[in-house]
Amino acid sequence: VLPCTEQAIRNAIAAGGGPYTFDCDDPTVLETKTEIVIDNNVILDGDGNLSVDGKNDHRVLSVAPDVRASLTGFEITGGRDVGLINEGGTLWLTDCVIRGNAGNGVSNEGTMIATSCTVAENEDTGIQNGETMILTNSHVSQNGGGGVFNGGTATIFDSAVLGNFGSGIDNWGTLSLATASIAGNEYAGITNTGILAAWSCTVSDNSGGGIHASGVFDCGGTMAITNSTVSGNEGDALYACGSTTITHSTVSGRVVADGQDSSIDIATTLIDGACGQQSESISWTSSGHNLESPGNTCGFDEAKGDQFNVRAEQLNLGPLRNNGGPTETHELRTEPVASVAIDTIPGASCVVNEDQRNEPRPQTGGSMCDVGAFEVQPEP
């Protein structure tokens, strides 16, 4: 246990090892004189009481190349250009808050594993990743240049990217999303130029569209959307460019395909909207058991078990809300009449054995499953 001072943090880094805690009786703000460079393997625990403030004069903290550092319970604020930068080390962040920095909140050029962290209200991008990042059970919100920029390899799960002034996530690398909420961002929820895989996610209420693939004239990106809900976004729900697959998902809004020789494959998916394309050389494939309401624009095929021209009252789709599980969904309602999306897919064609809420698919004791991201469960 060290004194609750800037010098004590520097002394702990110089000594290395740890864990080191700091004798702060109450929440304490340490205004640093210069950037704190973590150039030694060290474990630091702020216990939720330590705020390190760069006074908008310098970067707050940096991790040197090849260093292994762990920070728990710190707030990092007031950084100039960036609050925290990992310049090639391995960094663990737990229960940390990165807020109010004049630039990016966090820039990662090494390996970063962040758990139960908040990255908010930074002037530029909340998190900029250039190498390897895992983000778990965290919130990225209200950042001035967007929530997350990924130019490397990133995994984000059990997390929320909310209300950022820019895209929620801008992906140029390889991005895996699971049980994540991407909502209320000023531009698109997700823009993708790289490789995107989304599982059990909700992308909703974003001002510039839901999921938007970039690179209209050179579509090299790929997207795989599975067991997910895209709903309530201004503009297109899904703008596909390159290779796109949509499986067991619920898309409320318009699906648009663009780009030379782009392809889009849709299976066991509910589209409450319409489909369209902006160039001639688009390959649309139904892999079966899809549903379109209210029209017939997606090229679905009755011979493959697809349904189209489904009226709203036949669809009977509930509003986007918490229906259990980690992310919001659209319920398939059973009253006053059961939705035509219920029990229309033979069990052998249920390519995902759980719905977006982690409920079993097909339902317990059943042999048929439902179209879209929501599987109706039997009454208890």
Description:
The protein is mostly beta strands and 380 residues long. The chain has two helices and 37 strands. The protein has helices spanning 6-15, 312-315; strands at 2-3, 17-23, 28-31, 36-38, 42-53, 61-63, 68-77, 80-86, 90-94, 97-99, 102-108, 111-115, 118-120, 127-129, 132-136, 139-141, 148-150, 153-157, 160-162, 169-171, 174-178, 181-183, 190-192, 195-199, 202-204, 211-213, 222-226, 229-231, 238-247, 250-267, 270-277, 283-286, 291-294, 317-321, 329-332, 345-346, 368-369. The longest helix has 10 residues, at 6-15. The model has no long low-confidence stretch (mean pLDDT 95).
How many β-strand stretches?
37
- How would you characterize the largest beta sheet? 17 strands, parallel, barrel
> What is the C-alpha radius of gyration, as a whole number of Å?
23 Å
* End-to-end CA span: 53 Å
Secondary-structure-derived class: mainly beta
**Count, helices:** 2
The 3D shape can be described as: elongated
Q: Helicity, in percent?
A: under 10%
Average residue pLDDT: 95
